[in-house]
Amino acid sequence: MSSDYLPRHEGYRVSHYDLELDYRVRANRLSARATLTAAAVTELRRVDLDLAALTVAKVQVDGRPARFTHRGGVLRITPARAVAADTPFTVEVRYSGNPRPVTGRWGDIGWDELTDGALVASQPVGAPSWFPCNDHPSDKAAYRITVTAEAPYTVLATGVLVTQRRSAGTRTWVYERPEPTATYLVGVQIGRYRELALGPRQVAFVPPRLRRDAALDLGRHAAMVEALTGWFGPYPFADHQVVVADDDLDVPIEAQGMSVFGANHVDGRRTHERLVLHELAHQWFGNSLTIAGWRHIWLNEGFATYAEWLWSEASGGRPAAAHAREWHAATAALPADLVLADPGLARLFDPRVYKRGALTLHALRLRIGDERFFGLLRAWTAAHRHGHVDTAAFVALAGEHAGTDLSALFEAWLYRPALPPLPR
């Protein structure tokens, strides 16, 4: 599987991150310890981790002090002893500072201050803004996240809440996520929130002023989970949290077992319900099934966009076929200069990746019929649950389910820039 577009650190694989964070909201001050459990693939005389503009005070490898340098967003660690191939090892990093987003071609990404709180939005390269990691989707790991913050604030993090304790003026929250999770899907959300039940093991955390509108806008969340489960197979995680920040956000944020929206996405009229569905669909496509490299992003965004069209039809709105016709016409009017299976780093989030990805799935559905199409999607999510996927694997599985040769269809839709007509 490819590790293309963005680099990853070779020579080891992380199996578990234990993050202990002490955060002060008003000062935007973070003091932290990260303990990584990993395994060496080859002999390691140096371990490189991604970490942005925070100050590292101490590093240990297997309990022994290690030399390190920290420049250009990379923490380079030299263990006191080389780590032998096929050997487990631990890295402990103590660090602190004022976390801020990573700035790049996609804007500001990562840990960000709110008017009264903080959030994490890490896709695709923002995780190093708040913890040392191998920041590539191909290196998934389990997490334990402990966050201490001022008592008035609610802390939500990737995982299931396992304990909460209170001391003088602060509260400590501990979350665990046992399922393998990509670094960009690990989040911490801090604010003055109130709970809003949505359904079985589904809960929202919203600012008190938005509770009534959020109750309506998120009121069909349980029905969405039920519909998506029917199409794609069992929901992949133990629970789902929806967070509505008290600030406006440009776009919603997906995290493992969590969706995050801005106050501007809540209006009491379900105006943005498709976004709720889109982020929920990413729990299957992107989160449980994580792309092996960023060139395969259509497997995240095309599938989540097609889920929007399916929900529209199932909830009494426009049929999926009508959405397909509309977006086929709109896409045909744009330049034919994007290859869906290899869009390029600059076009990871091009709207055509989303819409043409969904159109590809609709074309496949028309070609093989509903029974085989939805059987394929359920087999896809089951075969790669909590694993990694790429385009070649999906094409191969589709061929097994189709009962017919799909090579021409996939060649046209995935590997050629010209937009094919929809099958009739």
Descriptive account of the structure:
- The structure is a single chain.
- By secondary structure, the protein is of the alpha+beta class.
- Among the domains are: 156 residues, Sandwich (Immunoglobulin-like), CATH 2.60.40; 126 residues, Neutral Protease Domain 2 (Neutral Protease, domain 2, Orthogonal Bundle).
- The protein is 26% helix and 33% strand.
- The protein has an 8-stranded mixed β-sheet with strand order 5-4-8-2-1-12-15-14, with no helix packed on it.
- β4 and β5 form a beta hairpin.
- The mean pLDDT is 97.
Please render the helix and strand layout as text:
Blueprint: E1 12-24, E2 29-40, E3 47-50, E4 55-61, E5 64-65, E6 67-71, E7 74-78, E8 88-97, E9 102-104, E10 107-114, E11 117-121, E12 141-150, E13 154-157, E14 160-167, E15 170-181, E16 188-191, E17 194-199, E18 202-206, H1 211-217, H2 221-232, E19 240-244, E20 253-255, E21 258-261, H3 273-281, E22 290-291, H4 298-314, H5 320-332, H6 351-368, H7 370-383, E23 388-389, H8 391-402, H9 407-415
Parallel strand pairs: 1-12, 18-19, 19-21, 22-23
Antiparallel strand pairs: 1-2, 2-8, 3-7, 4-5, 4-8, 6-7, 9-10, 10-11, 12-15, 13-16, 14-15, 17-18, 20-21
Short note summarizing the structure:
The protein has 424 residues and is of the alpha+beta class.
Enter the CATH topology name of the domain at 1-98 and 122-179.
Immunoglobulin-like
Q: Assign the CATH architecture of the domain at 1-98 and 122-179.
A: Sandwich
The stretches of 5 or more residues where confidence is low (pLDDT under 50) are none
**How does the helix and strand content classify structurally?**
alpha+beta
CATH superfamily of the domain at 1-98 and 122-179: tricorn interacting facor f3 domain
User: How helix-rich are the residues, as a percent range?
Assistant: 25-40%
CA radius of gyration: 22 Å
Sheet of most strands: 8 strands, mixed
Shape: globular
CATH class wording of the domain at 1-98 and 122-179: Mainly Beta
Proportion of β residues? 25-35%
Biggest β-sheet: strands ordered side by side in the sheet:
5-4-8-2-1-12-15-14
**Average pLDDT over all residues:** 97
Number of strands: 23
Count of alpha and pi helical runs: 9
Distance between the termini: 34 Å
